[in-house]
Structure formats: structure tokens, C-alpha cells
Write a structure and sequence with these properties.
The protein is an all-alpha fold. It contains 4 helices and no strands.
Length: 95
């Protein structure tokens, strides 16, 4: 009886799901234990949630670094140090 119920449930899912990819995956997923299926559901759910978070924060990713740099020098001193450490690559390039 359990197998018939599963087949009926799958038919109902197929009829209500717009995804054309579901039937091929079912062959791989149907033999997983309930614990493995719940774990997979959890992973899939968290991937959806994390995508939403990434979209919201990707526009302001640089703001995470504001105020993080710790230095005793002033901004002008740091700029001067950077400029003085620049090197020139004066070498001939043959193409």
C-alpha cells in the first residue's frame, strides 16, 4: 500500500509542479532516507535564503571595510608612503 501511495503522491506533485526537471531527479531522490531528504530540503532552503541576503548586500559590499583599517599615520602620510613605494617598470617590450 505504501508504494501505491507514493506513486499517487508523485503523480499529484507532477501535475502541480511546473518544473520539467523534477521527474528525472525523483529517481535519485526517492531512495534517500527521510533524514537525508530533510537534510537536502534544509540545504536547498538555506541556499534560497542566502541568495536573497547576497542580493541585498552586494550593492554595499565595500561598506563592510569602512573604518576597519587601523593605522597611526594620517591619510596624507599613507598616500605619501604608497606613492614613494611605487616602482617604474622601464623595460623594452618586443611584440
Amino acid at each position: 500500500m505504501q508504494a501505491k501511495k507514493t506513486i499517487r503522491e508523485m503523480s499529484a506533485i507532477r501535475n502541480t509542479t511546473s518544473s520539467s526537471y523534477m521527474p528525472p531527479y525523483w529517481g535519485l531522490l526517492k531512495n534517500l532516507s527521510d533524514r537525508e531528504k530533510l537534510g537536502l530540503i534544509s540545504l536547498l532552503s538555506s541556499s534560497i535564503v542566502s541568495k536573497g541576503r547576497k542580493r541585498r548586500t552586494s550593492a554595499n559590499w565595500a561598506s563592510r571595510f569602512a573604518g576597519v583599517w587601523k593605522d597611526e599615520r594620517t591619510a596624507d602620510e599613507i598616500v605619501e608612503d604608497i606613492r614613494s613605494c611605487r616602482t617604474s617598470n622601464n623595460f623594452d617590450v618586443e611584440l
